[in-house]
Every structure is written in structure tokens, then in C-alpha cells.
Design goal:
By secondary structure, the protein is α/β, with parallel strands linked by helices. It contains 6 helices and 16 strands. The structure holds flavin-adenine dinucleotide and FE2/S2 (inorganic) cluster (FES).
Length: 253
């Protein structure tokens, strides 16, 4: 983990308030699910860094996919190519690869898609394929579809309004596809309701699952206690250093 000043190599607006930003980190890579604390330009009242997952490593450049939701991300969206931002990372624990036969399944909600791009890239390098259930509110919230198709990811898309893929929840699609069988592992990233639904589906079926939580984070290094989640023993875990990816059986929702 390093705190570095990284030059912005690209910054591309996508549909509906989403952006891809590439930062020259010089890293060789990261574990999908790991994240960084990124400086956002100081504007009125914006003092903290913001946590973002990494979407992929392109040579020496690390890509982040983000959505403008508030002051920090709005300020970030004004950053130009060539500008420099501080980035602390890679932080936390990412998804673990699981050896052996069987399907490797991802379940993503909204911008929880980010780690699955790099996960698909790393699986493809091992000659394996990602099966991805990807749900969003509308078609406009589905990102990286071309890239995932290029990587031959088997995609099951759902939207709440039916504007793309099946209408409904992504976990309904998962349950339908695996009605009579089970994958060897499920990795999930997205809103807490989605993680809970994945946990409720996987655990009774003895399917190994890992869940990436998105708690609000102040420091990213275990100091501020702003990111705690409760485990099944009633203990509080710091998502930034013990997660953000946790074994599904350990989390209490
Ligand atoms: C480990 C981790 C990985 C993340 N990865 C990504 C990513 O890849 N792409 C991306 O776009 N965002 C990601 N986020 C969320 C991102 O950090 C927040 O969207 C960002 O901090 C919001 O900052 P803001 O100043 O724009 O919004 P604020 O002004 O701080 O808040 C605006 C609104 O967003 C809500 N909000 C703020 N933070 C979060 C959060 N963490 N989860 C849910 N709601 C939140 C607030 O409650 C408020 O309603 C991640 C968060 C974590 C913890
Ligand atoms: S973000 Fe500060 S302890 Fe986790």
C-alpha cells in the first residue's frame, strides 16, 4: 500500500453521470475488490478522500469507474487530464480465486460492476470464464457491457424497469439459472440489499460466497472506525482493513 501522487491519464464521461478515470499508479496490478482512497479537488466543504474500487489495470494505469452522487464525486468530475491526484492504495482484501471444477459467478449491482471487469480479465488469463449476473435500475446504469462481451463473460442482465435484460432483481435470475445446480463460488459487490439476498441464497446451499461491502469510509486505514460492520459473533469489523470483501458466512445484516 502506497500513498502516491498519480497523474490523470484519461477521464471519460459515460452515460448518466458515470465516468472512467485512469490514474498513472505504476502498479503491476491489484486484487479485484481492493480499493483506494482518492483525493478529490478541494471545494467548499470537501475535505476527505473518497473510497473507490479499482476496475482494471491497463499497463501502469489503474482505472476507476465512478458515478456522481454528491459533492466529492461532483468535484472529481471536474478534474482534467494531466492533473495529479493523491491515491492511497491498493487497500483491503479482494476476492479470492477458488481452485477446482465449477462455475465462478459474480453478482453485481450498479457500480458494483467495477471489480468484475478485472476479475474477468484475470480469469481469462487462467483460461476460465466469469458468469456474471448484473442488475441495475435502468439500461443507463449498465456499464462495461462491450468490455465484458469482449472478454467472453457469460452475462445475465436485469433491470428494475425492464429497459434491458430481464425485468426484476438480479438474484431472481441467479436462482432461476441455478435451480438444479450450484456454482463453486459467488462473488458479489453492490448495495447491502443485494449482498444480503446473495448471502440468503448461497449459504443454505453450501455455496462459498464472498461479499464486498460499501461502508462510508473516512480514513481507509483502520483508524477512524467509520466503516464498521457487524459479524455473526456480534463483533464489529473494520471494512477498510478486514474487508471490504468478507466471507459471506461471517456477515450479519
Ligand atoms: C470500498 C468502496 C468501494 C467503492 N467503489 C466505488 C466505485 O467503484 N464507484 C463509485 O462510483 N463509487 C464507489 N464507492 C462509493 C463512493 O465512495 C461514494 O459514492 C462516494 O464516496 C460519494 O462521495 P460524494 O462526496 O460524491 O457523496 P457524499 O456527498 O458524501 O454523499 C452523497 C450521497 O451518497 C451517499 N453515499 C456516500 N458514500 C456512500 C457509500 N459508500 N455507499 C452508499 N452511499 C453512499 C450518501 O449517503 C449521500 O446520500 C465505493 C465505496 C466503498 C466504501
Ligand atoms: S475507514 Fe477509517 S477505520 Fe475504516
Amino acid at each position: 500500500m502506497k500513498d502516491s501522487v498519480c497523474q490523470v491519464e484519461f477521464h471519460v464521461p459515460l452515460q448518466d453521470g458515470y465516468f472512467r478515470i485512469g490514474l498513472k499508479t505504476g502498479w503491476e496490478g491489484f486484487v479485484p475488490g481492493q480499493f483506494g482512497m482518492l483525493e478529490v479537488p478541494r471545494q467548499d466543504g470537501v475535505l476527505l478522500r473518497r473510497p473507490f474500487s479499482f476496475a482494471r489495470q491497463l499497463g501502469a494505469t489503474t482505472e476507476i469507474l465512478y458515478k456522481v452522487v454528491g459533492r466529492g464525486t461532483a468535484a472529481l468530475s471536474s478534474v482534467s487530464m494531466g492533473q495529479s491526484l493523491r491515491l492511497l492504495g491498493p487497500l483491503g482484501h479482494g476476492f479470492k480465486m477458488k481452485e477446482g471444477e465449477g462455475d465462478c459467478v459474480g453478482v453485481a449491482g450498479g457500480y458494483g460492476i467495477a471489480p468484475f471487469l478485472e476479475q474477468a480479465i484475470q480469469l481469462a488469463k487462467k483460461g476460465q470464464k466469469l458468469i456474471l449476473f448484473y442488475g441495475a435500475r435502468t439500461k443507463k446504469d449498465l456499464l462495461y457491457i462491450q468490455e465484458l462481451n469482449d472478454l467472453k463473460v457469460k452475462l445475465y442482465l436485469t433491470t428494475e424497469d425492464g429497459s434491458e435484460g430481464e425485468k426484476g432483481r438480479v438474484t431472481e435470475a441467479l436462482a432461476k439459472v441455478y435451480k438444479h445446480s450450484a456454482p463453486k463460488v459467488i462473488w458479489s459487490c453492490g448495495p447491502v440489499g443485494l449482498l444480503h439476498a446473495v448471502q440468503k441464497w448461497a449459504l443454505p446451499r453450501d455455496v462459498s460466497c464472498e461479499l464486498s461491502v460499501e461502508e462510508t469510509m473516512g480514513c481507509g486505514t483502520g483508524v477512524c472506525l467509520g466503516c464498521v460492520v457487524k459479524d455473526t459473533e456480534g463483533r464489529y469489523r473494520r471494512a477498510c482493513i478486514e474487508g471490504p470483501v468478507f466471507p459471506g458466512e461471517r456477515l450479519e445484516f
